[in-house]
Amino acid sequence: MKNDMNLNSRPLVMAAHLLQAWPPLLLAMLGVCMHRMGPAFERSRFGPPVALLGLVAFILLPDEPMGPEKVMHDALISALPWIAAATVGTILVLRGAPTYWTAKPGLMLLGWAAVSLSWVLIWPDFETSIANEFLLDLSVIPGLMLGVIAFALGVGIAERSSVIREESSPLTDDEGRLVHAILTRRLGGDEGEH
């Protein structure tokens, strides 16, 4: 009888564990999506705090996670220092980057220092096999660059070879009166004017 109770309570423990682990992750993803809406949307400013709230809630889970969630939790905890340094550095570099030809070199220098610190923090965690895979992944970059160069050359050739059409001739008096009449009817102006 006791074994039956243990078997029946195990799905409840698993469900509670999943309910603790996944909502914070979904909240963090929601924050990232809200932030990516761009400055034209008012709610984009709420994205970073919502993402940070989800991340902190996942880090500070009330119970020890199990299964794949434990692996994610442990990996995030161990990677937190370099992720923080890389995030702060990227934000500083983007803030200091030239906008309308005005750069902020101090911010950019501080940002690149934080990005470099993130590499220093992550390097001891690299095992030889991971480092080899990483270097193998970096070998894709020349191919990507060739694709970007080919695309840019294609656009340039297409732009140069396209024929510039002449400007259209201005409206005749009859066409002008017709356009005026149509606009007057649509906009509800004085119908007596011609």
Which terms would index this structure?
194 residues, mainly alpha
Reconstruct the topology from this structure.
Elements: H1 2-35, H2 47-59, H3 68-96, H4 105-122, H5 128-138, H6 141-161, H7 173-187
Shape: extended
Query: What's the number of extended β-strand segments?
Result: 0
User: What is the helical fraction, as a range of percent?
Assistant: over 70%
Mean pLDDT rating: 79
**SS summary, helix count:** 7
Please write the string of helix (H) and strand (E) elements: HHHHHHH
Q: What's this model, at a glance?
A:
The chain has 194 residues and is mainly α. The chain has helices at residues 2-35, 47-59, 68-96, 105-122, 128-138, 141-161, 173-187.
Care to describe what's here?
- The N terminus is likely disordered.
- This protein is extended.
- 73% of the residues lie in helices and 0% in strands.
- The chain is built from 7 helices and no strands.
- It is an all-alpha fold and 194 residues long.
